[in-house]
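Is this the right way to post structure tokens for a design question? Let me know if I should format differently. Anyway, here goes:
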């Protein structure tokens, strides 16, 4: 019968290393290649094969959110991605360490010892380099800063915006406005690349109905949406429909319209973006683009574990979007 000494000799390493690998010692610093070599030799020599099959490797995964915990609650898009990760976590094989941005930056010390990292949102070059110094196994969600090096999970923004414009045009709208999320994260001057506006402009220009006078850039929260819409109402220059960059702002805009006695959708149609939990329960229920954030979180978890296991080539996954038509959009002037 084979011994640890036999395995060590064939694997060209110490008996101690073999013993720790076969006992799945997570504190052992050894390359994945060497670990797999030892396990393969042990199996070939029929050394404690059953024990190896009964023990599963544990993965320690870090999750970094670009938002603070408060910002995550105010604009729950990234929160729902993180919850998608946590919902699909197998606690028997995987542990999770979550950190958020803070007034003093990220608490990188909490990520010590992680095997891989999921970065949700947009980050500075300095932050990304710090991530790289912690682990080589990175997956970015809703951003793709280094496509030749790391995995990225995005959603189909092109189809999302096209479906909104087509829906509103089919309802007879030709005066279509836009309220975008803040393009710059002021705290760190990260360009969030507001893709929605560029696509909005592109699709309306193609239909010959783009009007820059109906374009506004506001913020990202309920309060921002309320404030921007109130200012637009005061200008007394409303289009017949608005496409708003996220649902939190859209719900705030609905409140401002209600307070001004402007009925939705009879007087003005509203379309949001993301399909957050309370979009269905706003007054009226919000027509919006569903971004499958839980799926994005689920796939991020799968991809980072796949990278830890040894996949070398980076992948770029684009998830679909779906237009959810509810009660906040209607034909212009009530026409059918």
């Amino acid at each position: 019968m084979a011994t640890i000494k036999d395995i060590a000799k064939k694997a060209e390493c110490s008996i101690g290393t073999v013993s720790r690998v076969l006992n799945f010692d997570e504190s052992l610093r050894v390359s994945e290649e060497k670990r797999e070599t030892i396990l393969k030799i042990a199996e070939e020599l029929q050394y404690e094969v059953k024990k190896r099959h009964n023990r599963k490797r544990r993965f320690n995964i870090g999750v970094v959110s670009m938002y603070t915990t408060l910002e995550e609650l105010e604009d729950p898009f990234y929160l729902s991605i993180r919850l998608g990760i946590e919902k699909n976590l197998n606690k028997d094989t995987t542990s999770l360490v979550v950190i958020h941005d803070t007034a003093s930056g990220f608490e990188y010390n909490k990520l010590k010892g992680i095997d891989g990292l999921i970065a949700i949102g947009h980050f500075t070059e300095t932050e990304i380099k710090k991530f790289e110094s912690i682990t080589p196994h990175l997956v970015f969600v809703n951003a793709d800063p280094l496509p030749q090096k790391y995995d990225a999970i995005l959603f189909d923004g092109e189809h999302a915006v096209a479906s909104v414009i087509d829906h509103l045009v089919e309802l007879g709208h030709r005066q279509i406005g836009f309220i975008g999320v803040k393009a710059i994260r002021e705290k760190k001057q990260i360009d969030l690349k507001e893709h929605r506006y560029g696509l909005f402009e592109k699709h309306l220009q193609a239909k010959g109905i783009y009007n820059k006078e109906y374009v506004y850039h506001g913020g990202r929260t309920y309060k921002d949406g309320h404030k921007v819409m109130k200012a637009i109402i005061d200008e007394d220059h409303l289009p017949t429909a608005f496409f708003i960059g996220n649902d939190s702002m859209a719900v705030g805009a609905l409140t401002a319209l209600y307070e001004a006695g402007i009925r939705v959708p009879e007087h003005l149609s509203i379309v949001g973006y993301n399909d957050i939990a309370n979009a269905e329960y706003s007054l009226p229920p919000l027509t919006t683009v569903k971004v499958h954030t839980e799926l994005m979180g689920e796939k991020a978890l799968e991809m980072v574990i796949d990278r830890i296991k040894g996949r070398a080539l980076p992948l770029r996954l684009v998830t679909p979007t779906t237009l959810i038509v509810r009660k906040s959009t209607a034909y212009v002037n009530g026409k059918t």
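Format looks fine. Someone answered above. Worth noting: The first strand starts at residue 59 and ends at 65. The chain has three domains: 4-54, 59-155+295-319, 157-292+323-334.
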